[in-house]
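Workshop exercise sheet. Pairs work together: one partner reads the sequence aloud, the other fills in the structure field after running the prediction. Swap roles for the next sheet.
Pair: D.N. / O.F.
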Amino acid sequence: MPPGLFLAQSPFGDEDDDDSPRGRAGLHHGSGRPTGTPTARPNGSRRRSPSAQDESTEAPASQRQRRVEPARTRTHDPFEESSESENEEQDATPPIEMSRTEQNAALIVCLAGVMKRLDEMARGIGAGPARSLTGNTQVSLMSHEDQVKTHVYTAPFKMFLRHVARQAMLDENIEAYGADHWDNSLYRAVMLQLNMKPGPFKQKHLPPRYLSDNPLVTASVVAHVKTHLKHVRHKARNVLLTGIIKNSSRDYIPPITKLSRLLWRHFMDRNKTESEDDIDKKLAPLPLLCTRFVFMRMETLHHYIDPLHSLSQWDRMDARLLELRRRPVQFTQQ
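Structure field:
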C-alpha cells in the first residue's frame, strides 16, 4: 500500500470483524456498502493529513543527528575598539559550544587585556619612568593625593635634614635663620643640599612625582623641612642658654671660648672624638664665626628675659642682621 493512504475502515480494526458501534456507524440502513467520509476517495481511501504524513515519514529520534557548526576561537583583544561591522561578523559563541581549549584561550585573552589596562593605570602613578607589572614592582591603588598625605618620611631622610641644617648653622654668612624668603637663609641652604641629591635618593625618600615639580608634593616636602628646621633651632637655643636656664647641664655661664666649643660640637652632630685643642685650631681661622656665636647668644638671652616679646628669637636675629647689612661697610668692619 502506498504510504499516506489507508482504506475506509475504522482505525480500530477491519470492517468485517468490527461489531463496535463505531464500526456500524459507517453503514447505510439496508445497505452493506461502506459510507466514505467527506474526504474519502472513490476507491474507499482518503489522504492522510500533513501532520500524520510527517509523523509517519519522520525518522526515529535515535537516528536524528544535530548539526553543530564548529566554534570559532576569539583571537581579538576585547579591550580594543572595533567597528560595528566587525562585531556583527564575530558573533559570540555560547560557552556550552566551546571546547576546553577554546575556553582557556578566551580566558587568556581577557586576562591579557586586564593586565594591559592595569599597566596603563600604573604608568600614571608614582614618579620616575613607568614600570611594568612584573617582578617585585609594587603599585599603589590610592590616588596621588592620598599617597602624598599618607607618605611616611624615613629615618635616614630625617637624619639627613638635621645634619644639613646643623652644618648650615656654622656658616658665618647666613642672613636669616627663621625667614625663608632670603636667598642666603637657613631654609634655602637646606633645600639647596636636598635638590643636589641624586634622583634615586629622592625617589626612595620623597613622595611620588617630586622630580616633576608637582605642587602638592613640593608643599609636603617644604612643610617637612621647615618642621625639622624648627627642631634644629630649638636644640641650638638650649645650647645658647647653657648656664642660664635651670635645666642646663652647667651651673655657670661659659665664656666665649667654651661656648664656641659647645656650639661646634653640637652643630657637628655632637662630635665627641675631637679634643678641645683640635676644635680651637679649627675655630682660630674663623673669627667671624665666633662673633656670630656671641651675637646669637645675646639675642637669645634678650628674648629669654623679655616677658613681653612677640617675636621669636630667630626673627629678632633676622631683623638685626638686616639692619646691620644696611649699614655702611666701615661700620660693620669696626
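Discussion prompt: Residues 215-240 form the longest helix (26 residues). What would you look at next?
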